[in-house]
Every structure is written in structure tokens, then in C-alpha cells.
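re the bet — no i am not wrong, look at it urself. input seq straight from the record:
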Amino acid sequence: MSYKTLTVSTEGHIARITLDRPDRLNAMNADFWNELPAAVRALDAGGDIRAIVIDANGKHFTAGLDLGMFGTPPDPADVTARVQKAARFRHNTALMQQTFSALEDCRVPVIAALHGLFNEVLDSKEATLERALEMAKEIAGKSPLAVHGCKRMITYARDHNTADSLDYVVTWNAGMLHSEEVMAAVTAGKTGEPGDYTPLPPLNDDVQGGV
């Protein structure tokens, strides 16, 4: 079987799956989300493979989600599309989650050969503090709602199993991930300018109306 985003090879009882879009930093597009689980399941189904190694061509293992996955927001005048938006998003994200669930469900061990795993090792306390402040500044330049969501997911996953965590992630994203924030991130990435993100809402100590 041939793939658009992967190269699959075998040697003896070992299979190698290589992310193979180095010109796009191996960003995860729609083909990737469909091809990776198909490749894993095909290798598992044969019965001859005893271990799978996943690596990547190019400088980066992967840049993450391909921003081309985000379509244009529904027309505000299209009531059906607006009402169905969250449900469609949740369903599609659940399908994407199955891509990585395939690695867990596979009968044989899967080893990821990640390059660039460590950020850096610093020589002094001062250098460490400087780098920490730089990292904080970088995080502060991201969408506050997205960062809040990431931290919430990390905390939730710590105390729950994989299936529960994935279900929580997809439900959270369906309600909290807004196309306006995504487009602000895309614009910031293209222009190099700070993103025009919505701030976190202020917290209040008592119950208020007009939610």
C-alpha cells in the first residue's frame, strides 16, 4: 500500500513508519490522520511484525496540526451550519484521536524515535532564569484560551485513563476552540506580529446573571 504522508518499510519482524513531508515540516494534514492508523492496523493485521518504529524525515519530527485542517467558519446566516458546527467538530476530532489510539490498540510495541526531544541544557542559574522568562514570554504570546485549555487537559489526563481523557478533550474543544482564535494564530504565524487574541474572562466571587 502506498501513502501520501508516510513511508513504510519492514526488515525482518520490525516495521518502520516514517513521516515523510519534510517540506511541510511533517505537519499533520487530513491524509496523515487517515493514513497513520491504516498503516499501523495493516502491519498489525499481518501477524509477522513484532515491533514498530516511527520516525520522521527532515529537520523536525512534526510541526503538529496542519493549519489547513481548519476550514472557513460557517455563514452566520446559515442557521443549520451554525447549530451543527460543534457537533461536526467533535465528531471529526474524535476520528483524529483514533489515529493515535491505533498505536495503543496495536498488539505490538510502538517506539517513537523523536529528534529534538530536549529543548536545551543551561550552564547557570542566571541562564536558566533568563530562558524561563523567555519561555514565559513565548507562552504569553499564545492564545490565552488555548493555553488555559492545554493546562486543563494536562491536569485532567493526569488523573484519568486515556479513553476518558480523549473524550474530555474533544468535548472541551467543541465548546472552547473558536475559529476566530485559530485564524488569529494563523495570522500571527504568517506575519510574525503578536496575535490579536481574546483575553481570559475576569473571575467573580459571587453568582451573577447574564452569563
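see?? The two ends are 53 Å apart (CA to CA). told u. also The chain has a mean pLDDT of 86. so pay up
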